[in-house]
Amino acid sequence: MTELFQFMSKQKKTTRKASAKRKSTPKQPAATSNIESMMHEDRVFAPDKEFSKHAHIKSMTQYKKLYKQSIESPEKFWSDQAKEELVWFKPWKKTLQWKAPDAKWFVGGQLNVSHNCLDRWLESDIANRAAIIWEGEPDSLTRPGEERTLTYRQLHREVCRFANILKRHGIKKRDRIIIYMPMTPEAAIAMLACARVGAIHSVVFGGFSSQSIADRISDCGAKMVITADGGYRRGSIVPLKKNVDDALLIKGEDGELLAKSVEKVIVHRRANIDIHIEPNRDFWWHRELEYVDANCPAAKLDSEHPLFILYTSGSTGKPKGILHTTAGYLLGAKMTSKYIFDLKPEDVYWCTADVGWVTGHSYMVYGPLANGSTVVMYEGAPNYPEPDRFWSIVEKYSVSILYTAPTAIRAFMKWGEKWPKKHDLSSLRLLGTVGEPINPEAWIWYHEVIGGKRCPIVDTWWQTETGGIMIAPLPGATPTKPGSATLPFFGIKPELVDDSGEAVKKGEGGKLVVRQPWPSMLRGIWGDKKRFKEVYWSEVPGSYFTGDGCRQDKDGYFWIVGRIDDVLNVAGHRIGTAEVESALVSDHRVAESAVVGRPDDLKGQAIVVFVTLKEGVKASEKLKIELRNHVGKEIGPVAKPDDIRFAEALPKTRSGKIMRRLLKQIAAGKEIQGDTTTLEDLSVLTRLSASEE
Ligand code: PRX
């Protein structure tokens, strides 16, 4: 973290179609204390002319002009946009009140997020269009999943009715509510109902444990939990209500119940399983509906009224409750959805993220609904009952925009082309990725096999903290380069800096910071102002520190190299893990890889690599040597792995991020310590530890 970053990558600009090949010219790194990047990726994909003609932003000239305005006069830019995009009950008096790190946007204004997502469409022809098309998990190969469609009018009605249930149970503005639900429309209804009455929701991913629920309740002092009896996952039932019951009994170190603030639990019936109902505490959603009507005007809330808290794990310590507020967040989610996905009312848009992640908040619920679009929501896993689940859904609903994660794309690559090939994917017109750097090989596969070489790919860089996408191409304007999130969105001023906070030269690497406040930025960590300042605002005073390492090429494109904490230091050479991983995956036999450092007396750190192979490929000593040499060829001898381990699967968080912290412990031959509650499949760890040499 302390060194200056310097990347030595040379970018060769060639604008051409998909035929170009990856270039790799290893060279001996010169410096010894800098991050070194030696991989070339010189393919450039110009936007398709026909796509550009119909896109919201049609050319780089248009993008550059608007971007310039947005950076030079941000308050005017955002004020114009807020007037144009949002429906207000009361106009604001001051666009921005800023004293780092505290931002207030659209001060004095009043609006409601649920009103902006629903009521505003009721008098238009969008009212009777599908807002949510929901597909349940299929029971088996022969029994398809349930399906339900809610029009905007229907969704509005359900949200109003549920909001009245909240009021009936004493929920007031600013009360905190935990939502622990499967991927059903009721999850979105619950979120929108909270927003409607001014309660603050905190969605906890349905795969998290009772302990995680209890910790989160304790941290935010939640008064209510909204859950379901159970949810389906890969053919079995996750006992959600039982997990909540257990959470409510967990005691903290002081012997007190962690979740003592919870007064009521509302339970949606999804799985039809037997559950315990505690009298006066637990209530069935469908029973409560009998007591309410659908008349519930949206509360008039201040622009800075808290909308949600979403917990995200830091590299150490307890999860941080990231706080987002009303107007700025919604404006960010709405505008980025519109311009980056080129969203139009006739699109069928599918973001595959779970509602428990920020992507599910901004790009499954708030952003697309604020644009009046049709959203597909799927309950199950991508490979259950067979690995073509996603592609059958794309075909069935004529999905036009698909937004998913690189980890999913690599899994699809591993399962093979035959699964997507079984389906007609011609309805797709745009593809997106988020969550981690996408290696060029996966990008090209996504482009060719899923996008049929005709769909632009938007690689979107952002964070829970940023609320919305910060760096991404505009599909009708920006030429894309596989592996780069390209250029900043309007009003966003990212910069790469060295340790003294000085901007580094173009082409060099550094810490990614954001220089100007933006409307959808986090407003704090719930209940922990000190940590908020320390984590985000102390590294580079006055700027928001993202925690990511990045480099910018000579065209100004941003290439994220990963979390700064993950950077390796091998014999004085600082190497980004993403680069070594990308080199490994460029070998046609490798499905996925994770790279970590292991303490080494001689070199400081040795490079340990965990590799999963594509289906049908056999692990062997010969393959290890070949992969070592391949990395040496792609990056340079210094990056040759010291230790390659084949694994059936890698330990990942539920949102698909590789848990390097655990791999580091395995690589160092240590026992696994620390929090593993966010791990998707615990058995992966046992198998990995057993595979140690
Ligand atoms: O390291 C970056 C990586 O994911 C981090 C944010 O994670 P989270 O808050 O869970 O939000 C995920 C959904 C926005 C970032 O700091 N990341 C996210 N998107 C990309 C990425 N890294 C490279 N390229 C991306 N497109």
CATH architecture of the domain at 130-291 and 306-312, please?
Answer: 3-Layer(aba) Sandwich
**Class from helix and strand fractions:** alpha/beta
Q: Classify the helix fraction into a percent range.
A: 25-40%
Main sheet makeup: 7 strands, mixed
Cα end-to-end separation = 31 Å
Query: How many DSSP-defined strands?
Result: 30
Q: Uncertain regions: pLDDT < 50 for 5+ in a row? A: 1-34
Biggest sheet strand order reads 5-4-17-16-18-19-20
Task: Outline the structure in words.
- With 693 residues, this protein is α/β, with parallel strands linked by helices.
- Among the domains are: 130-291 and 306-312, Rossmann fold (3-Layer(aba) Sandwich), CATH 3.40.50.980; 564-690, GMP Synthetase, Chain A, domain 3 (2-Layer Sandwich), CATH 3.30.300.30.
- The protein has 20 helices and 30 strands.
- The strands form 9 sheets. It has a 7-stranded mixed beta sheet with strand order 5-4-17-16-18-19-20, sandwiched between helices.
- α5 (152-168) packs across α6 (185-197) and α7 packs across α8 (240-247).
- The protein is globular.
- The chain starts with 48 loop residues before the first helix and ends with a helix.
- Mean pLDDT is 89; it is low at 1-34.
- Residues 312, 358-359, 434-437, 459-464, 485, 546-548, 560, 563, 655 line the site of adenosine-5'-monophosphate-propyl ester.
